[in-house]
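One example given next:
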Amino acid sequence: MKKPLCGLLLVLLSFVGYRIASDYLEDNREFR
């Protein structure tokens, strides 16, 4: 397993997850 590639993938996943969570929280705030 290539560690650099794994680290890059982890960063990308965390970034995408953060974006999704941010949008989800914003929608909830608007919905209220």
Residues 3-31 form the longest helix (29 residues). The helical segments are 3-31. The chain is about 90% helix and 0% strand.
